[in-house]
Amino acid sequence: MSRPTVAIHKFSSCDGCQLAFLNMGEGLIELAARVEIIHFAEAGMVDPDTTVDIAFIEGSVTTAEDELRIQQIRAHSGLLITIGACATSGGIQALRNLQEEDWCSSLYATPDTIASLATSRAITEYVDVDLELWGCPVRSEQLLAVLSDLLHGVMPGKLSGVMQEPLCQSCKRNQQVCTLVSLGKPCLGPVTRGGCGAICPRLGRDCYGCSGPLKKPNSESIERCFEGLGLLPEEISRRFKMIHSIHYQGEQ
Question: Which terminus of the chain has a lower count of CB atoms within 10 Å, N or C?
Answer without folding.
Answer: N
